[in-house]
Amino acid sequence: MKLWGGRFKEGTNKLVNDFNSSINVDCRMYKEDIKGSIAHSKMLGKQGIIPKESAKKIEDGLVELLKRLNSGAIEIDLTSEDIHSFTEGILTYYIGDSGKMLHTARSRNDQVTLDLKLYLKSYINDIINDLLNLEEVLSLKAKENTKTIMPGYTHMQKAQPITFSHHLLAYSEMFKRDIKRLLDDLERLDEMPLGSGALATSTYPIDREFVAKELGFKNITLNSLDSVSDRDYAIETLSCLSIIMMHLSRFSEEIIIWCTNEFNFIELSDEYSTGSSIMPQKKNPDVAELVRSKTGRVYGDLMTLLTVMKGIPLAYNKDMQEDKECLFDALDTVSLSIKTFTGMINTMKVNKEAMKLSCKSGFTNATDVADYLVKSGLTFRSAHEIVGEMVLYCIDKNKGIEDLTLEEFKSFSKEFKEDIYKAVDLLTCVEERSVVGGPSTSSVNFQIKMLDEFINSIKNKQ
Ligand code: ARG
Questions:
Q1: Torsions phi, psi of 260, nearest 5?
Q2: Do 236 and 373 share a domain, yes or no?
Q3: Are residues 75 and 94 in the same domain?
Q4: pTM for the full predicted model
Q5: Is 276 tagged catalytic?
Q6: Does residue 216 sit within a domain?
Q7: How far apart are alpha carbons 13 and 1 in whole angstroms?
Q8: Does the beta carbon of 273 sit less than 6 angstroms from any atom of ligand 1?
Q9: What is the mean pLDDT of residues 13-33?
Q10: In angstroms, what is the span from residue 108 Cα to ligand 1's centroid?
Q11: 30 with 100, same domain?
Q12: Ligand 1 pocket check for 221: Cβ under 6 Å
């Protein structure tokens, strides 16, 4: 059934019908569409805009429709133009003429943005939960690795020793910000648009606050033109999702590097790896690679909507129907990526020995030698110069700094004493960095405590 046949003499071209239809995409919002319609019809009845008995019939009919769709007793008719046409059409088929009153004081323009906001409110909360699960796994792994020494890198060159816990907790900070960004997005999204009509509200004495309350919105939108043509909330969501994927992608890149033969820092579980059809020895980190590539896809979804919206004059234009496919694609992609990634991290094996061994080459304790000299009275710049020469010497002799004899040390500076060996020990290098944010056991324990508190505070608010 078409919602707008009256003005037309001829039917729509078959191709145009298909081209115009959005039901294949928006059918997933059927619950929200029905929920929104129930609230709208209640309000129409309460305000005396339609008879109370008709409002009740509509409500009962919609509740029944939802039940039948949820149970699979009936299916959405995919030849309808969109989910709104389907809902109204089948409701009228169920309850007769009362169904034709449902669209009083409403347009699909305010209806569609209401549905999308309701749908997002729930999906964004699901993604927050996915991220919380990931944070819990990171906290667990961080606790297991507070003493696992590994090289920290800059420019992909070994820099200073850190702990694996410290490294994992860096990502937990990113995901904390991601959760906060989504919560902030939800805050702005929390404005109820129904009542804006096609663009200029309506002449009926509607009660928008009532509808907002029924549907659990904090506020109502303030300008009807903006209300029906605003998709900022969808763009903000896509931006948040893109940043999440950027974080997952960086992490994936490290996972891929860490499980190479050359690094061998971790081993992914069989469950989260795949093999090669030709090379029997292969165990590939496909999950991490797919997360890395799906990041591009989510960025593309963001670009799609930004571009769709950039030339649209006020108010609603059909261009905006293209908002959902990219948004849903991004939501599904991110949700599946986080879940799979979490399982991969949870089941990986950490090769503590390989990490520590790797720290021994590459002079990761060179800064600590310079700091030792500074503590004996040298300026940092002179100490830096001396240790630079020591590194050159060690490269020539194929030795680590800690392998030098005390005489060799003293040949570079008389300030070196027996306690230099303790100072260049990797554990000392890590534990001496005990300021907030650092890699030492006390510092990472504090970070873990803050992470656990964060996880609990978000969970308690839900
Ligand atoms: N399917 C449409 C969409 O998703 C619903 C709004 C249609 N409004 C209209 N004036 N044709 O945007």
A1: -70, 160
A2: no
A3: yes
A4: 0.95
A5: yes
A6: no
A7: 15
A8: no
A9: 95
A10: 6
A11: yes
A12: no
